[in-house]
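To the wet lab folks,

You asked to see what we're planning to order before we commit. Fair enough. Below is the target structure as tokens, and below that is the sequence we designed to fit it. If anything looks off to you, flag it before the synthesis order goes out.
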């Protein structure tokens, strides 16, 4: 299965989440930036409110695409075995955390502005991204949301690796992944258009100004 773009992936994912349509307790949380167009389609189809949950991947120094962990709101930090296996020093880890914490705060201000985050206590939180590779970022997101006392956490993605789906099943109440290819390789390989989502597009979609192409 290959998706044309993130909007099409969101529409396909929404069909897999149809059981949650028109349920007043449902909230859709997008992981920016790439998860926002996907989540926008999901929220529109389900008739649910949309918000962002800003989490940041902690990239391995010199090889930033390799996740050694992730951070989320409320001080949540998830680490993989990479720092230990690759002999990354504590000082190097803290430098990466400090940089990504500043970016997390910047994006919170940029995307949400003065709007307060949605209240999640007692609600069904559907966490959406454009795909799962290692699952570290979504893992941090799920832990951050769990601390906000939702009724249920549903992780929902169009595509993901079997390993990441297995990981997320340990922290979410439900994982919905439309396509689990083998071999997986990378999220972007399953999209015809996987261009970077801009901050401007994220803000427009969150403000209800976006349109499905």
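Sequence we intend to order:
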């Amino acid at each position: 299965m290959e998706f044309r773009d993130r909007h099409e992936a969101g529409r396909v994912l929404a069909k897999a989440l149809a059981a949650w349509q028109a349920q007043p307790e449902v909230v859709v949380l997008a992981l920016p930036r790439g998860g926002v167009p996907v989540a926008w389609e999901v929220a529109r189809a389900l008739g649910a409110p949309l918000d962002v949950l800003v989490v940041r991947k902690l990239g391995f120094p010199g090889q930033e695409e390799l996740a050694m962990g992730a951070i989320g709101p409320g001080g949540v930090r998830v680490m993989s075995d990479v720092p230990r296996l690759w002999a990354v020093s504590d000082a190097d880890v803290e430098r990466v955390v400090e940089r990504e914490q500043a970016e997390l705060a910047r994006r919170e201000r940029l995307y949400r502005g003065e709007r307060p985050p949605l209240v999640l206590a007692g609600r069904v939180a559907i966490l959406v991204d454009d795909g799962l590779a290692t699952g570290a970022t979504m893992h941090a997101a799920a832990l951050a949301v769990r601390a906000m006392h939702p009724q249920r956490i549903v992780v929902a993605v169009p595509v993901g690796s079997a390993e990441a789906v297995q990981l997320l099943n340990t922290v979410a109440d439900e994982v919905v992944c439309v396509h689990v290819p083998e071999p997986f390789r990378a999220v972007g390989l399953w999209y015809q258009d996987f261009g970077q989502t801009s901050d401007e597009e994220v803000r427009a979609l969150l403000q209800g100004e976006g349109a499905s192409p």
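Structural context that might help your review: The chain is about 35% helix and 20% strand. Residues 45 and 138 are 22 Å apart (CA to CA).

Thanks,
Computational group
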